[in-house]
Amino acid sequence: MVMVMRPISSCLTLSQTPPPPPRPRASNHLSTQKQFKRNSRNYCITRPQILPSSSSSSSSRDALGFRVFVLSDLHTDYPENMNWVRSLSTKAYKNDLLLLAGDVAETYHNFYLTMSLLKDRFQHVVYVPGNHDLWCRSVPEGHPYYLDSLEKLNQLLDACRGLGVQTRPMVLFGLGIAPLFSWYHESFDREMDIASIRIPSLEMVIHFLLCSIHHLSHPFHKPRQELCPEKRMLFYPNLPKIVGSDFLEVRIRSIHGSEGNASACHVFGHTHFCWDSVLDGIRYIQAPLAYPRERERRMNGGETWLPFCVYSGGKFADRLSPCYWSDYYAAHARAPHVTELAPWVARFYKRA
């Protein structure tokens, strides 16, 4: 769910009909440990070399007109969200690049249709998977069936390759883009828990069973806990346990340096909070479409500002504003030791 962008010194319309399902529905007996081990070897993901810029399109004139937009959390299984994607101009972004930071759709059909629509609108689309993309729900007979989330991940990556959607590092007009496949880990949360209320379990809220990854080591999501509101501010105070990992920050700093730099930018998704802030020399941005009910509450200021243009004319865009939570923490220090619930959260749990 994350992208790393950095300027470096060196500088198609396709069918919207999904390809055939990856495999017919299989018996539950396939989920044996022996078969999983055999399939795991086949589903190993390799990271290819960085794709160089195309010399035929590297003129300075083209570079000055090149723009980068960011989006996350499209959730196009909701018809309203799919309609929003369809409403995007088919002309305005023809020379531009879209960074798509995960959670496109839960079903393969909606994923493929969404990516087709986006690739028809943007010259380049770069994608990293989110947890909803890898969910393995029960599906009707004849629909794609996946032994586990790793199998589904490979099918989604195959679809991306067929559509011309990039999932590997690339350089375009001197801008380096590094997609980082990511997952969360509970150890990421080190702030004090809220003990005064009964909070639903993580399994009940995040549906871990829908992401079947067995016991492989976790990749990662959000790099720093400062990119999520404090627990007392959240309707689900345990959210920080399922949104990030310290290892991701290490990877980002290995790219940009421990102190970052003025041209370092990290794009992420997953929590649905609009965010734009600089922490220790790196700019962190989240630009989610989110769920229809969240847009109805104007949680992130609606949808007319999306997709957000983060890079244009050879430089990064000004800070996204308004941006409620990152604006709030720009003016207020975090106080994780305070566990008294915010009024809107307290009212919610009182009603519950």
TrEMBL record:
One of its GO terms (molecular function) is hydrolase activity. It comes from the Eukaryota. SUPFAM superfamilies: Metallo-dependent phosphatases (SSF56300). Pfam families: Metallophos. Residues 66-160 form the Calcineurin-like phosphoesterase domain. Gene3D superfamilies: 3.60.21.10. This is Calcineurin-like phosphoesterase domain-containing protein.
